[in-house]
Predict the 3D structure of the following.
Amino acid sequence: MTTTAEIATVSATRTVSEVAGESGVAASAVRFYEKHGVITAVRTPSNQRRFNDSAACRIKVAKLAQRVGLTVREIAGVFAGLPPSPGPDDWARVATVLVEHAEARTAELRARLADLRSGTKLCEVVEQID
Amino acid sequence: MTTTAEIATVSATRTVSEVAGESGVAASAVRFYEKHGVITAVRTPSNQRRFNDSAACRIKVAKLAQRVGLTVREIAGVFAGLPPSPGPDDWARVATVLVEHAEARTAELRARLADLRSGTKLCEVVEQID
DNA sequence: CTCGCCGTTGAACATATGTTGAAGTCAAGC
DNA sequence: GCTTGACTTCAACATATGTTCAACGGCGAG
């Protein structure tokens, strides 16, 4: 059996332009993200890309992830575990991974800045009066 | 009067290679960072660059900042307010700015991920059974 | 004084992240 | 059936972040 939900989620109907519009990036970027595994497409008989609902969302999430320092390759890696049509739980896992990435890097920043501050002579001038 | 500390902090004695060694980047990167305002140099009579103690530290901090999504231009901007030989208080201010940058972006990530999760039909499939 | 080692500059190359343009294909409407 | 518009691929260009290379200059040791 195939439920309405399954039809809706599995069928890939969005064109490049539509995904671009939905996600707020240029069509060229949509093709770029497909090429690099951030999104995936099926092809029509006449070789056109068709994306499902999740494509625009993946791109939006990818743009956010880029802002906290992840590369496209890393983002594609995080998305690699996603099913074609991710559910709320799948997205929650991705969100967790991304936030942990971001927080780990911020923690690293904090810690290393603290190191530099405490480690005499690493960043600080030796405070010698006379 | 010129104190020992002032002599030590103001004099720029490090060569490109030395700063590269201290900071753990290539000599070419040191020149790149100078060109883009992350570090500054004075020139010897024979035109060679000389950096002060803070150069290696600026580079280390810059590398950390890059990891949380800041560009070289942004980092140069953050460092722009620093005196030639920053003291502990100057570094503390820089650290605060960088951590706030990182946390703001992580907060943005969190918030937008939450938006996407809550905003029905943005990322989630409509959960319809039958 | 010559040699070798740094340093200098500028250009070319390399990778990441895209954008733009040219040339061709396909489907839909007049 | 011809035009139009959206799609395709591929190549060139653009920016950010560096690295490598070639050609050249100065300085200290032998």
Q: What stands out?
A: The helical segments of chain A are 4-10, 16-23, 27-35, 54-67, 72-79, 88-118. The two ends of chain A are 86 Å apart (CA to CA). Residues 25-26, 28-29, 32, 36, 46-48, 66, 71-73 of chain A lie near DNA strand C (CB under 10 Å from a C1'). Chain A has six helices and two strands.
